[in-house]
Amino acid sequence: MPKRSGKPKLPKSLQVARRGAVVILTLARPEKRNALNDATVLGLEAFFETLPTGVKAVVLNAQGNHFSAGLDLSELKVLSTEEGIAHSRVWHRIFDKIEFGRVPVVTVMQGAVVGGGLELAAATHIRVAERSAYYALPEGSRGIFVGGGGSVRLPRLIGVSRIMDLMLTGRTYSAEEGQALGLSHYLVEPGEGLAKAIEIARRIATNSPTTNFAIMQALPRIAEQDRASGYVMESMMAAIAQGNEEAKTRIKAFLEKKAAKVTRDS
Asked: More exposed terminus of the chain, fewer Cβ within 10 Å: N or C?
């Protein structure tokens, strides 16, 4: 089992700050437009493997004008086929630990959200885009292919044909286009992304951990199953969640009119 306490040794390209039940993880290579090198990606793994038990949500953001320009091509090595596969699988393993980790992750995107940066964002659960954000997959023009899970996650977000267009033509999507297509969940003005993400993360942190777990772990898998299997998994997760003592307390509070009802602004 991964440790959930202690402070991992992180590279300088990652900075951490805690605000109660929310931890803010910051990509800190603004001079490189927060391009992702192996040290940074391995640092992400160390961070998510050692989250303290009291943390209930993470905000991922980046210093400077860009979220991430993708793979740091200055560190790209000539690898054999076997080495290339192994390198890509490392990214897959680490990004899976984000997507199917212990707590939800809210990402703030500004400026370049390109290549591996877009793959990283797609592995998180809620994405807030500032209007400066733009999206691209320039691998086609670089003579390479996505290797951080983008060909798996991104078509599920916006469709295979749009990913083909991005990769074949080098097209970019604006923040507004990305919002319309589903690359982001929230669209805010420049400079407002972090505050919005923290607000969302704090709200997520008030949920039952069991419910958050079900949403993160079961929901995406149910979506990929056949209907009959999906119904079985849904019923099992519903039974587990409602049998939780915290759920019983929350339902009782609602029935006793001690909990707020859902409204248009809630």
From this structure: N
Residues 94, 42 contacting (CB under 8 angstroms): yes
Average pLDDT over residues 89-98: 97
Report how far apart the first and last C-alpha atoms of the chain are (Å, whole number): 37
What pLDDT is stored for residue 93 in this prediction? 98
Question: Which of 163, 109, 160, 108 shows the shortest CA–CA distance to 136?
Answer: 163
**Domains of the chain, each with CATH number or no CATH:** 14-205 (3.90.226.10), 209-255 (1.10.12.10)
pLDDT digits (tens, 9 = 90+) for 221-263: 999 999 999 999 999 999 988 877 776 676 666 566 665 665 7
Active site residues: 119, 139
Q: Which residues contact 94 (CB under 8 A, 6 or more apart)?
A: 41, 42, 44, 45, 48
Verdict on whether the full-model pTM lies above 0.85? yes
Helix (H) or strand (E) holding 241: helix 227-242
